Amino acid sequence: MWYNNGMYSIKKSNFILLIIIAAVIGACVCFGVIKAVSFVGTGSLSGSQDAKAFQERYKELDEVYQRIQKDYYKDVDPEKLIIGATKGMVNSLGDQYSSYMTKSEYEQWYSTVTGEYEGIGVTFVMEKKGEGEVILVNENSPAEAAGIKPGDVMTKVDGKSYKDSDKMSEAIRGKGGTTVKVTYKRNGKEKTVSIIRDKIVSVSVTSEMLSGNIGYIRILSFEASTDEDFKAALESMEKKKVKGLVIDLRDNGGGLVDSASRIADMLLGKCNITYLQNREGKKEYIDSDASKTDLPYVVLVNGNSASASEIVTAAIKDNKGGKIVGTKTFGKGIVQSTEQLDDGSALELTVLQYFSPNGHAIHKKGIKPNYVVKDNPKTKADEQLEKAEGLL
Predict the structure, then answer these.
(1) DSSP H helical segments within 240-299, as ranges?
(2) How many Cα atoms within 13 Å fall on the side-chain side of residue 331?
(3) Which residues pair with 200 in a beta bridge?
(4) What residues in the chain have per-residue pLDDT under 70?
(5) pLDDT tens across 295-323, in order?
(6) Strand partners, 153
(7) Least CB-packed of 61, 167, 215, 319 within 10 Å?
(8) CA 98 to CA 95: how far, in whole Å?
(9) Three-state SS for 241?
(10) Is 332 an annotated catalytic residue?
(11) Which residues pair with residue 347 across a beta bridge?
């Protein structure tokens, strides 16, 4: 399963979890419970030479652990030390997209991928000033019942402000039946509402008819069912014999590469959608078959269109499938593997870079639209959408 923020998951057999109980046996000095992740084929800890190498590799780590346990002024949970050490190892890569997740963190991440979670039922975009602008409220959701609407700006969750969208999402979500207080602004006025969380099936595709017999499909993220939902919306537009189609990828931060590539396949004939490359230079190609929609279409993007959104955008641009309107995309052209470990925790690691069909690197560069159109926040009009309608 490919996931792109961008990420993909691989079989558990590709990793081994090495667990060593604290002991001092001969020359091998270990501490607490050491969790080390390595690729199959590297060998196990056996023989005096291996034991000596292991001891040398983790000597400083053990010394720090022992010193903390002995001299720190308060009692310390050994498991927290191990989690901190493991997170620190991954953080030392300096890669914001690689991380070690505890079991609970992984379960929350996985719920995002599948589109099913417990929360209030809102989709939002984080503003630079640390506020979450609501762009979608699920029908019959706790958020809708509480009166929250698209365009509202969430400023606090349980009285706390957040600058990171993931942290705000984590605070909003929680076990069904529990209560969360959300503070939001509307027309300059601030209000706090108490909302009881419930099971939510997120909506990743919405559609409607625009004036002039033009269809409109918005993809908010690429989740497990997104390609099937998009296919249903596309077929509905084809049956209505719309003049053309606007596909809105604005503020879409990515998701499953499989889902994104299947959507690109519906829009393009036989061609390359993208190719991925590892550090050895080995390439893997994702291609489209000949079958595609006959509807003309325009794709909308902006600076928050990232990752899997950029795979679709680059494929359409390079293969001249439709016009791209908006502003330059975010520029995230790397792929992570997410692997659950034996204890339920998980390692998310950047392993690949992807390129446009014409070989253009996307990471830290983004994709320039065919028509660069900025949306003026001071007007009620959607200038980018108007341009797309005009092209159709």
Answers:
(1) 257-267
(2) 8
(3) 117
(4) 1-49
(5) 999 999 999 999 999 999 999 999 999 99
(6) 133, 185
(7) 167
(8) 6
(9) coil
(10) yes
(11) 100, 339
pLDDT score, position 48:
65
Q: What is the DSSP string of 114-163?
A: HTEEEE--EEEEE-TTS-EEEEEE-TT-HHHHTT--TT-EEEEETTB--S
- Catalytic residue (choose from 229, 258, 265, 318): 318
CA distances from 249 to 35, 139, 171, 236, 384 (A): 40, 21, 26, 19, 12
pLDDT at 387: 98
Active site residue 12: no
Options 207, 307, 309, 337, the catalytic residue? 307
Cα–Cα distances in Å, from 197 out to 118, 143, 173?
6, 9, 7
**Cβ neighbours for 28, distance < 8 A, ≥ 6 positions apart:** 51, 54, 55
Amino acid 15: pLDDT: 28
- pTM of the entire structure? 0.77
* Per-residue model confidence (pLDDT) at position 307: 94
Catalytic residue among 332, 345, 356, 387: 332
CB 98 within 8 A of CB 350: yes
98 is catalytic: no
Residue 214, pLDDT score: 98
Torsion over CA: 155, 159, 162, 168 (sign): negative
pLDDT of residue 47: 57
Identify the burial level of 231 via C-beta atoms within 10 angstroms of its C-beta, where 0-12 means exposed, 13-18 middle and 19 or more buried: middle
Distance, CA of 50 to CA of 43 (rounded, Å): 9
- Whole-number Å distance between alpha carbons of 350 and 334: 7
**275 with 314: CB under 8 angstroms?**
no
Q: What is the pLDDT of residue 30?
A: 28
